Amino acid sequence: MDINKDLVAATASPLVLAILAEGDSYGYAILKRVSELSGGKLQWTDGMLYPVLHRLERQGHIKGKWGASETGRKRKYYHLTARGRAQLTEQRQQWQTVDAALRTVWPAVSLSMGTLPSPVASHG
Questions:
Q1: Burial letters for 102-123: b for 16+ Cβ neighbours within 10 Å, e otherwise?
Q2: Which CA distances in Å does 95 have to 15, 60, 72, 78, 90?
Q3: What single-letter DSSP state applies at residue 4?
């Protein structure tokens, strides 16, 4: 099932911050970790990730530093800052509240509306 772009965008910052809370990382490794953590349900691209990394860096939530890969190629590693860790805590609480609310709302709405139509995959 495709996930709506707005929903993917809304989850991008907390996911990146959570991955960097595990330790410093770089773009390709972050993409692989997102796929791994989501069981393959989220497949991000470079074009989606790097604007998020640049925004988080401008906001002071992460800090980038150039280093070298195992092969000697230049690679930018990202580190979660104290401000980013606080932001992650706040966003996690907000998402947990939304998750809890939806888990309450969906069954209540389903009961009052009868049978809901089956979800249709979104392509946009």
A1: eeeeeeeeeeeeeeeeeeeeee
A2: 11, 21, 39, 23, 9
A3: -
Any idea what the Cα angle at residue 102 is, between residues 96 and 107, rounded to 5°? 140
Q: Which residue has better confidence, 35 or 121?
A: 35
**φ, ψ for residue 3 (rounded to 5)?**
-105, 135
Question: What is the spatial distance between Cα 53 and Cα 101, in angstroms, rounded to a whole number?
Answer: 29
Q: How many CB atoms lie within 10 A of CB 39?
A: 7
25, pLDDT greater than 70:
yes
What 8-state DSSP symbol labels residue 82?
A: H
Q: Is 45 helix (H, G, I), strand (E, B) or coil?
A: coil
pTM: 0.84
Which SS3 state, helix, strand or coil, does residue 116 take?
coil
